[in-house]
């Protein structure tokens, strides 16, 4: 059963990509029994045009299809979306399984698949995708907060996450008074909505480059552009 693309639903949609209409209908019927809406595609290219749709929760993809194969579709999707993909095939082998996982497949199931196993894998895929999306939203919000800091406040923030005292930050910034640094520090905590240094570092470490050695400015720009 297809779900129109313009239908808004709180329940994530499962995309079914398979050139066999009977398989598509059977999978859609099964998933409907547990309340999961579906959207069916007869070929990989048609689905790829919809792959960025935020309404999607995961995709079930056949390996052997006319034109673009399921494995080629996985390669294309890895460049543009983090949508979880479950590969289904009746002709699987070690090489195709290895390639599927290398291209980011969440799972690799052989047809005919056990109904309970399929439902469990799909529900887990949707759960992971929702968690990832929630994390992305939170990071975007934090990046937006960092972007509200002035250049001087960013310098003070860098000193805070390095563990420097107000006196040390003042000295590093060319002789500012500790009291002035304290004012900037208060502004930083207010704008970032952090109540302690521990909370600040915990919530902003990745964006600030504390973890992974990245550049805070570049990371913030990436999240704001997402």
Automatic annotation (TrEMBL):
Residue ranges annotated for the Response regulatory domain, each copy included: 13-126
A Pfam family: Response_reg
Keywords: DNA-binding, Phosphoprotein, Transcription, Transcription regulation
UniProt modified residues of type 4-aspartylphosphate: 62
HTH luxR-type domain boundaries: 142-209
Keyword DNA-binding assigned: yes
Protein's name in the database: Response regulator
